[in-house]
Amino acid sequence: METEDNLIGRRVLMLGSAATAASIGLGALGALPEAEAAVRPRRRAAFAVWDPITGRSTTAMSPKRVTVHIAVTRSDDIYGPGKGPGGSYAHFYNPRSGAPRQHQYLDRRAAADLNGNARSISVEHAGLDGDRMTDTQLRNLAKIFAWAVIHCGVPNRIATVNDLRGLAWHRLGIDGNFGRFDRNDRTTWCRKQTGAVWSNSTGKLCPTDKFIRQIPTVYSKAQYWLKKWGGRPG
Ligand SMILES: [Zn+2]
Fold it and tell me: Ligand 1 center to residue 117 CA distance, Å?
């Protein structure tokens, strides 16, 4: 269980715009609230497919980190019709190829980080234990992080055991035996050092050693996007 309270439900049918809805004879969807259709950088990443799930939290939050997860599936889309998030959902799903999907506003809580939900923009990834993030996933995640830095106030840093802000990963808040703590090996960092409670599942591997070892690559790639996008709110 990594939920908060309300939530869950199938994703709504999402069309690109009210005009699209009208053009294919779905006039009723023209009533879609303007806020749903517009890209507002604090709420939506322009490069992601906007794919809101129904029943998502309306609780506001001020994000301080981007948290990396692995879904333990290679599916292109884990929140589709008939595949409810099962009590947990992330802001983004990052498939092995193609654009990321965004399921919740960036200034509203998702439900993937348990007690961390008030400060986390969460990103689920397609992948199985043993997989590395694909080049597409590295790029998508770097863009999500850079966007969160520019538009949402997330510090431009990699999380440490003493400061969980910045680019983070689920294991930082998971209890388990991940080997003897080594300050130079991020795969050993977990709740024992941080005190963070981001999961009730002891020993959960998320997001796996290989993904954690790619964190510096993601951070490095994000610096490119920060520079490209001006390093300031656009
Ligand atoms: Zn996770």
Answer: 12
